[in-house]
Amino acid sequence: MGDEVGMIGVCGIGGVGKTMIMKNLHNDLQRETRFQNVIWVTMSHPLNVFELQKKIADAMGKRLQEEEEVMMRAAALMEIMRRKRYVVILDDVWKKFSLTEVGIPDPNVQNGCKVVVTSRSSEVCSYLRCKIVEVKPLSQEESLQLFLNTVGDGVLQVPGLEEILKLIVEECAGLPLAIIVIAGSMRGVDDVNVWKNALTEVRDRVRSVKDANDEIFKRLRFSFDRLDSLEVKNCFLYCSFFREDYVFSRRELIECWIDEGLIDGSPRREAACNRGHAIIDRLEKNFLLEKETFWLPGGYPFYSAGAKMHDVVRHMAIIGIGPEFGYMNLVELPDEHGWVKDTKKLSLMGNNILKVPLSLPPKCLSLSTLILSSNPNLSEIPESFFGEMLALKVLDLSRAAIETLPNSISKLENLSALRLQHCMKLKYLPSLANLKGLKKLDLHEAGIEVVPEGMGMLISLEYLDLLFCQNLKEIPTGILPNLSNLQHLGVCCLQESTIIRNLEEVARLKKLETLECQFDGIQDFNHFVNKFKDFQSAVAYSLGVGTARYMVRQSKYELVIIECEIGEECVVLPNNLEDLWIVSCKNMRSSLNRIVMLEMEANELRRCHIWYSEEIECVVELDSSSSSSSLCCPVLDKLELLELSMLPKLCELVRVEGATTPPHIFSNLKTLKIESCSGMRKLLPLELQ
Predict the structure, then answer these.
(1) Which of 358, 431, 445, 598 is such that its CA lies 20 to 30 A from the CA of 275?
(2) Strands, DSSP E only, in 172-265?
(3) Are 217 and 255 in contact (CB under 8 A)?
(4) 3-class DSSP state for residue 496?
(5) DSSP code of 131?
(6) H or E segment at 481?
(7) How many CB atoms lie within 10 A of CB 624?
(8) Distances (CA, A) of 269 to 262, 459, 499
(9) 210 within 8 A of 287, measured Cβ to Cβ
(10) What backbone phi and psi angles, to 5 degrees, belong to 195?
């Protein structure tokens, strides 16, 4: 549309394809130059103006004052946006609101800006004075083509199937989401009888349609029913506990499934994680989850595989199926009479709960899971709150502002998982000595100063995370050896004496499968590598050096050196290291082989990433004192990926001064990424080209 149209409203029923259309438009606009900012925001429910302001400002590379009131932030945001030509896409708007209240200037001919809204309500779009564009269901011909694209054209080769397939497509009512999900659930099926049964089930589901939501929900329910096990169904339903449009990492989701006991199989954590990945793959192939990239917070482009639930699929899971399986999502704490006695799993995630009322000792004798995470202002929980939750197995209070936990926690003898990550104000935990069945204690980035009383008596503990507990000075001697069932351990090594004592105890944990460890500096890290070479080969590890709080977790054996003073001491690499990251380090020398001991036996390195360095000029520097034998840089023999980014002084990969270049350097390199390296003049010496 031309500049005369500033507000555009894209309307249509759930599942008709509004979001997909706008994602394609968003991607197209980003490739153009006529707008300085193309901003995508998925709206929260209920509307949170503060959060909306933050998302828009972040997308424009600006920061609003956290402590200011909404009106003051709106004025600041308005001033920022007036200087730009932008497109703002607000996806999934449910309720009326004012652009001025948020701080979005009215788009008009003069500023050439656009605001696009997607909504199921034309009334909302009209209130915002939008030019309305209605997205209608697909025609029968379009629906059939989309179905075939998803299920595979090969099904038409099965005798007698084409007519049944057309009838199933007809039942999808032209809704792309229903078509894709149902087709995905039938992919690979070539038995006509199974297709006939599928037609019957789809028809049964839609027979009693009452409104537009039911219309899509009933069709999606068919794909849920076709999931082949109760295990997969429960894993799917658990995904609805995350906030709408929440992108979760695969690791995060699988860890939750393990905590809940939803994954069947081996007692080994690695086997359970592998099973979790297989379940996510199954849900993605059935289009019940969508693939996404999970970006780690903090400003660096670290990412991992992630996923999210389409909002319509999530609503179907919450409203149409969850209660049957004992799942319940609420947006606020019920009063003392509002707790449903038969609820087994309850999520109150991300609802800005401020505190739990003193008059709330709920009787929830069947409740096994309570999720109160991502309520950043939740600061107090009454002593009696957990008194009648004796069946509780999973308690999640992550990202809350609590300073203490009530003593009634000590009575939860059936508790198997206690998640308190990012509770940075948490100072006190009651004794955990009675929690003999506790398998997981996650205190990642908590504010504790001493380990919880009774931690050494947690004989069932399999997962302990004490990473980035900056106030925690030590783990007292004798605690770790008692945790003989430990499979995962995350610790920070902040003082040399603590490193020596605790890591010697760690080496005696025979069931340990994964170790995540953060070191302050190169000297402490090198001490660890030299002292525990044999131990490294027995466990997977993610090791970090420096001040930043990052664990990338992209490979089985990885080292991240970030925001660290490298100095004169070379980094000693573990023998089986696969992935090396060097990011934003200071006082670096001119080449990688003067930073890292490339002559070591660490010849399993597959991927190397070097980002944000002012000093580095080349990757390998050889002079007359360098050995020209095949042992010169064995670390680079098997390197498959080399990524170089934001290195302004980098001018070449290999610098040769009076030495012979070993012919095997980079001989297995498959991918070379060079980005924002303005000084680059030459890739390789002539003899390597």
Answers:
(1) 445
(2) 248-249
(3) no
(4) helix
(5) E
(6) none
(7) 9
(8) 13, 17, 25
(9) no
(10) -65, -40
Mean pLDDT value across residues 536-556:
80
Share above pLDDT 90 across residues of the chain, in percent, rounded to a whole number:
28
Q: Which pLDDT score is estimated for 210?
A: 39
Whether the model pTM is above 0.85: no
- Residue 689's CB: how many other CB atoms inside 10 A? 7
Rounded-to-integer distance, Cα 204 and Cα 209, Å: 10
d(CA 62, CA 310): 29
- Quote the tokens at residue 123: 């009334």
| Ramachandran class of 289: left when φ > 0, alpha when ψ lies in -120 to 50, beta otherwise | beta
Structure token digits, residue 500:
């020596």
Distance between CA atoms of residues 118 and 12, nearest Å: 8
* The pLDDT value given to residue 115: 93
Encoding tokens for residue 549? 């709080």
What does the alpha-carbon distance between residue 560 and residue 584 come to, in Å, rounded to a whole number?
Answer: 11
Q: CB-based burial of residue 596 (10 Å sphere; 0-12 exposed, 13-18 middle, 19+ buried)?
A: buried
Q: What is the CA radius of gyration of the chain?
A: 28
657 bridge partner residues: 623
Residue 342 burial class via C-beta count within 10 angstroms: exposed 0-12, middle 13-18, buried 19 and up: exposed
d(CA 260, CA 330): 19
Tokens of 483: 């945790």
Rounded Cα distance between 554 and 304, Å, is 7
Hey, how many other C-beta atoms are within 10 angstroms of the C-beta on 478?
A: 9
Quick one: which of 654, 650, 639 has its CA closest to 686?
654
How would DSSP label each residue in 47-103? --HHHHHHHHHHHTT----TTS-HHHHHHHHHHHHHTS-EEEEEES--S---HHHHT
| Residue 592, burial from CB neighbour count under 10 angstroms (0-12, 13-18, 19+) | buried
User: Do 363 and 343 meet the contact criterion of CB atoms below 8 Å apart?
Assistant: no
pLDDT at 213 over 60: no
* DSSP assignment letter at 319: I
Express each pLDDT in 636-650 by its tens digit.
Answer: 778 899 999 999 989
- Which residues, including other chains, have CB under 8 Å from residue 370's CB and lie 6 or more apart? 346, 348, 389, 392, 394, 395, 396
Here the tokens at position 64 are 């609003």
The pLDDT value recorded for residue 67 is: 66
Give the pLDDT band of residue 201 (cuts 50, 70, 90): confident
User: Helix/strand/coil (H, E, C) string of 601-645?
Assistant: CCCCCCEEEEECCCCCCEEEEEECCCCCCCCCCHHHCCCCEEEEE
Instruction: Quote the Cα angle for 102-104-108, to 5°.
Output: 150
Residues 79, 60 contacting (CB under 8 angstroms): no
Q: What is the pLDDT of residue 487?
A: 94
C-alpha dihedral, 348 to 349 to 351 to 353, nearest 10°: 70
Give yes or no for a contact between 587 and 614, defined as CB atoms under 8 angstroms apart. no
Q: DSSP labels for 529-592?
A: HHH-HHHHTTSEEEEEEESS------SSEEEEEES-B-TTSPBPPPTT--EEEEES-BS--SBG
Closest by alpha carbon to 88, among 57, 134, 109, 66?
A: 57
Beta strand 641-645 pairing with 86-91 = unpaired
